[in-house]
């Protein structure tokens, strides 16, 4: 696993790990990552073989939203991709953000 997770994880199954971000951007800010990189460093590098894990990541984002009580009012799922997309960690991960009104445009 690419991340050294020293704080308690939020969700885990055989393929995905979710944990609270240490740099909160909203009252709820959870990262969802695949346990194995398998060449999936960013969304633009996704291949046919990554379809299942990409779906699992989004499904876990929904589980996180439900556990955090933000499913009903809404939440945002963010994937930063590449330099212009502000990606700072080159291991694909989703940010689940909520607990407040999100603004638009986001960036």
From TrEMBL:
Full protein name: HIT domain-containing protein
PANTHER family with a match to the protein in the record: HISTIDINE TRIAD HIT PROTEIN
Motif position, Histidine triad motif: 91-95
Cited CDD domains: PKCI_related
Organism domain of life: Eukaryota
Lineage: Eukaryota, Viridiplantae, Streptophyta, Embryophyta, Tracheophyta
Residue ranges of domain HIT in the record: 1-107
GO molecular function per UniProt: adenylylsulfatase activity
Active site positions: 93 (tele-amp-histidine intermediate)
Organism: Aquilegia coerulea (Rocky mountain columbine)
Pfam entry (one): HIT
